[in-house]
Write a structure and sequence with these properties.
Length: 280
């Protein structure tokens, strides 16, 4: 994967350099065509999977315009979190552009529900994420299954960026029998058996499981291409519910508007450690 600067108002564009014609996918919720194990963009025969961790890092840094060049159908998993992307982007440097930065402001509640899971967006002056998970597993139950973070006062990089994806050994064995999840290991995920965390280094956060769900949700919301001014609440939600939510939001045009914000407003309203930028 190579990340390249893009002109103002380009958005996030994924390009498959390994396919004839170098096809590109312009980020949009309606391009999410697969939510099994990850968020995947699909258009015709072009696929880009596992975009959520990279998108979460881009949202956390406020990067609006970027070309993402890939020579394979999946964004590298790295260590299963957004931290490596955050580090590489900050090391490369982020450039402010001469264009107004725009956000999606939630004006009234939008909620979707399916099979006992639900997610909602509600008005809020800033960005706040609340998540509830329910896993009947001793290691998860011991760490806390609910979390609320107001990102106008708490930093994305510190609070969620290092939280890794997780999976259960029994599920991994079933996936591998179907030629799925073949690259999963203790180096890019938290793995649990029936009783405990198998990673020798343990957890990075005491409640890393629910923090990763927040990380994922931030990435899934960023398929909208803009940061959100509002509050997100997910209950037993995953990539599928998150995508249903942003699609439902777009249908109800009276529930949101796009607003330009000054630099001062951006710093106060969204992420406390977000760079005040128009793009990269």
């Amino acid at each position: 994967m190579t990340l390249r600067p893009a002109p103002a108002n380009t958005g996030i564009v994924f390009r498959r350099l390994d396919l004839e014609g170098l096809p590109q996918l312009n980020l949009h919720p309606e391009l999410v065509g697969d939510t099994l194990l990850c968020t995947a963009l699909v258009e015709k025969n072009v696929r880009v999977a596992t975009v959520e961790h990279l998108l979460s890092a881009l949202a956390g840094l406020g990067i609006d315009n970027l070309y993402v060049d890939l020579d394979a159908p999946e964004v590298p998993i790295m260590d299963g979190s957004a931290a490596p992307f955050l580090y590489l982007l900050l090391s490369a440097g982020i450039e402010e552009q001469r264009a107004s930065k725009r956000f999606i402001r939630i004006k009234k509640e939008i909620r979707v529900e399916k099979n006992g899971s639900w997610a909602a967006l509600t008005p809020f002056q800033g960005f706040k994420a609340t998540f509830d998970i329910h896993f009947n597993h001793p290691a998860v139950e011991a760490t806390g299954q609910s979390l609320e973070i107001d990102f106008s006062s708490r930093a994305y990089a510190r609070e969620v960026s290092r939280a890794r994806t997780f999976g259960f050994m029994r599920d991994i064995e079933q996936l591998r029998s179907r030629n799925l999840g073949l690259g999963g290991s203790l180096e890019n995920a938290i793995v649990l058996d029936d009783f405990r965390v198998l990673n020798p280094e343990g957890l990075r956060y005491q409640d890393e499981f629910v923090r990763h769900k927040v990380l994922d949700a931030i990435g899934d919301l960023y398929t909208l291409g803009h940061g959100i001014i509002g509050a997100f609440h997910g209950y037993k939600a995953g990539h599928a519910i998150n995508n249903l939510l942003v699609r439902e939001l777009l249908v109800h045009q009276d529930a949101w508007d796009i607003v330009p914000l000054s630099q001062q407003e951006q710093t106060r309203a969204i992420f406390s450690d977000r760079y005040v930028l128009a793009g990269v």
